[in-house]
Automatic annotation (TrEMBL):
One Pfam family named in its UniProt record: Peripla_BP_6
Domain Leucine-binding protein as annotated: residue spans: 20-368
Name of protein: ABC transporter substrate-binding protein
Keyword Signal belongs to the record: yes
Membership in a protein family: Belongs to the leucine-binding protein family.
Keywords: Amino-acid transport, Signal, Transport
UniProt KW Hydrolase keyword: no
SUPFAM superfamilies: Periplasmic binding protein-like I
Length: 375
């Protein structure tokens, strides 16, 4: 894969300061997770350009280097090593997927470089790792939100269908663990491969499970759309839920009419206009949506928001740290309080390197080809 490595705008600031702020990024711009990684890349480039044109961060321009791992963990590790050893970055934003993120984690921990992941699994920040942070809600939070909605609807018997991937496996683990804590009964537990073209056999087994009342799919990228199509094709009547790895209009397009009625937890960004005025996210989410859609002529996704939040959290930490000293910036990220982003209000600490509460999640449902807030 090739890298796009450019100092975006405001080069006069470089002459004044002498050194750019070097941000590296590993993203799945192509491959099965491209509808997550591509908007992340576009957002980073857009806002780095805007920051540089406004004078940079404390007068220093940002130099952004992006590598496309194609969704492959081994490439993510290789590119992370290059960012650390050859490109000499001050921080890394990325890891579109859990697998890519976890491949990078030991490298950034050894190097002592701040790393803000854009992936969902709880294992990224639990247990806490010194140099690793994340912006998306965890899969544990997603499962808790889904089970809460199921119980409101009177469902206590759930079937699981999980992708054999980092995010899928972690989501399944959380679904099994949380079920025991909240009184849900798992009546079927099936898996599918990330490259599978058909899940009819698994869906048929779920359809035959005794007393199944709802189904939860744990996966990301294109797989969940394929699962949704097969699910409807086989006429399963139980309500279908997904985790937040599909919170994008691209999922709805890929699944087509089969997506109708699917529920999942998502950041307020995907339903910004539907949020009550009292929601602290509404202003940020609405403004970000407007900027994104005007710039790219396409619908916003929560994954784009994860990249925006990571960039804003990092640049704010640089300002508070008085420069790019890695240890000082790490401490400043950990001390982030009251940041209102597209994912919610972030309050990090030494024991919480994500900083989001369950109230930052909203249940949404696909209605007439769009997201609708579940009230």
């Amino acid at each position: 894969m090739t890298a796009s490595a450019v100092a975006l705008g405001a080069m006069s600031a470089l002459a004044q300061s002498g050194q750019p702020i070097k941000i590296g990024s590993i993203l799945s711009v192509t491959g099965p997770a491209s509808f997550l990684g591509e908007p992340e890349k576009k957002v980073l480039e857009l806002y780095v350009d805007r920051i540089n044109k406004a004078g940079g961060v404390a007068g220093r321009p940002i130099q952004l280097t992006v590598y496309d791992d194609g969704g492959a963990a081994d490439k993510a590790a290789s590119f992370t090593k290059r960012l650390l050893e050859s490109d000499g970055v001050d921080a890394i934003l990325g890891g579109t997927t859990t697998a890519a993120t976890m491949a990078a984690v030991p490298l950034v921990e050894r190097a002592g470089v701040p790393f803000i992941s854009l992936a969902g699994a709880v294992v990224i920040t639990e247990p806490v790792k010194t140099w690793v942070f994340k912006t998306p809600h965890t899969d544990r939070m997603a499962v808790e939100k889904v089970y809460g909605d199921m119980k409101k609807r009177g469902f206590t018997r759930v079937a699981l269908l999980s992708e054999d991937s980092g995010f899928g496996k972690s989501g399944r683990d959380q679904a099994l663990t949380v079920a025991k804590l909240v009184g849900m009964t798992v009546v079927a537990d099936e898996t599918y491969g990330a490259k599978d073209a058909d899940v009819s056999a698994q869906v048929t087994k779920i359809r035959g499970a005794e007393g199944v009342q709802a189904v939860l799919v744990s996966g990301l990228g294109q797989g969940p759309a394929m699962v949704t199509r097969d699910y409807r094709k086989l006429g399963v009547s139980a309500p279908l839920y997904h985790l937040h790895g599909v919170a994008s209009k691209e999922f709805i397009r890929l699944a087509g009419d089969a997506a109708e009625g699917v529920r999942l937890p998502a950041a307020g960004l995907v339903v910004a206009a539907q949020l009550p005025d009292s929601d602290p996210q509404k202003k940020v989410a609405t403004e970000f949506t407007k900027t994104y859609e005007e710039a790219f002529k396409s619908e916003v996704s929560t994954f784009a928001g994860h990249a925006y939040d990571a960039l804003m959290i990092y640049t704010d930490a640089v300002k508070r740290a008085g420069g790019t000293d890695k240890a000082k910036v790490r401490d400043a990220i950990e001390q982030t309080k009251g940041y209102v982003g597209t994912g919610g209000v972030v309050n990090m600490s030494a024991t919480d390197h994500m900083g989001l509460g369950l109230d930052a999640f909203h249940m949404v449902e696909v209605k007439k080809g769009d997201w609708a807030l579940v009230k």
